[in-house]
Known about the structure:
Distance between the termini: 32 Å
Oligomer: single chain
Number of strands: 11
Helix content: 25-40%
Amino acid sequence: MDTSAPPAQSGSVSASSLDGTAVADAASSGLAGMGDEAAGAGVEAVVGMLEGGGVVVLSGAGLSTESGIPDYRGVTGSRRRGTPMTYQEFAGSEESRQRYWARSHLGWRAVGEARPNDGHRAVTRLVGGGFVAGVITQNVDGLHAAAGTPQAIELHGSLHHVVCLTCGNRSTREHLDQRLDEANPGFRAVAAQVNPDGDAELADERIAGFRTVSCQICRTGTLKPDVIFFGENVPKPRVAQCYDLVDAASALLVLGSSLTVMSGLRFVRHAAKQGKPVAIVNQGVTRGDPLATARLDLPLGATLTHLADRLAA
């Protein structure tokens, strides 16, 4: 497979048959694009891939935008905000942790109250119908589980849990939210923006008086959301579990990910190296486009619902 091919252009639909022939491009506009020849060919390619079963899904932030959680880059591929806090920053100073938890305390409401959208529900239908064998998600919002998808691997962890860096105790984010409310009565500012990792934009003067809390088990331990920060490694057993899933898959279906970071892109490269079909449904270009055997630049919710309906899942 030639991995040096240029990526599909933003604002277009690329579709190819699963053996790499009959490539076409056409402008897309929502589901109206499915009426276009190229978009229709792309949909048929993905339907054919799913019909055989054994497909593994790799999902990203774009799948959750219809639930009200913004993605990192949007259709242009440009980051919407600066780089999120690194693990080294978080672990290195109380001031950094104060800033993180003040902002995250606000952002958590948006993530915690979010509900699965049509895309999540369609993935659950495809799993239930035997077309999808497993799900790897880069998202930390827990919406695959909320939609009823069994045993989705949360590659980067979940915002719904908190871990103590000292004793390792895990607790729920709901419980921490109550504790932070008690420690900071009246602290309910309006966030300028909420991000996929639950972080929120907040003025410095609102952060200054925020009080953090320690682990209730060891009494002094630092609490951290049970997610993978930038600068932190995904646990090796979890990565191995994902590779095993891709190894056993008939094909890989990428949903709503720009594949900008290697954490997700490595599985696309792994599948392509094995000669397995890779289909990508994402609004905007991705780093995996040169490896894709089918590419759809269409809204996730409507597209996945259409696919599930076609397969009577």
